């Protein structure tokens, strides 16, 4: 399968692209899901954030976001890595429902 077809299939997991969020809105949305206030987003927190953003498969998106964004490989997204997470979410066109 060609990479273009794979990317198109992966973009299917986003429900809507009607109202894209700004980078600041995405950053605030993700950080609002830091439930324990430790400044790190773990997979469960990311899963809830992607659910709020309309992901059809939020567990998958959370895992892929960690793979793409977790520079120090500690399994969480910290404040230094949030820009990578926002870039990932922007690439896939996340918006509020």
Write the layout of secondary structure elements.
Elements: H1 3-11, H2 23-32, H3 43-52, H4 58-69, H5 82-91
Helix pairs in contact: 2-5, 3-4, 4-5
What does this structure look like?
The chain is mainly α. It contains 5 helices and no strands. It has helices spanning 3-11, 23-32, 43-52, 58-69, 82-91. 22% of the residues are buried.
CATH H-tier superfamily: EF-hand
- Calculate Rg over CA atoms: 13 Å
Output the number of helix runs: 5
Number of strands: 0
Q: Identify the quaternary structure here.
A: single chain
Please provide the ordered H/E string of secondary-structure elements.
Answer: HHHHH
The CATH architecture can be given as Orthogonal Bundle
CATH fold-type name: Recoverin, domain 1
Low-confidence stretches: none
Provide mean pLDDT, rounded.
Answer: 85
End-to-end Cα distance, whole Å, is 31 Å
Could you say which structural class the secondary elements and strand pairing correspond to? mainly alpha
GO molecular function: calcium ion binding
Keywords: Calcium
Protein name: EF-hand domain-containing protein
InterPro entries: EF-hand-dom_pair (IPR011992), EF_Hand_1_Ca_BS (IPR018247), EF_hand_dom (IPR002048)
Features:
97 residues, EF_Hand_1_Ca_BS, calcium, single chain, 0% strand, calcium ion binding, 53% helix
Q: TL;DR of this structure?
A:
With 97 residues, the protein is mainly alpha-helical.
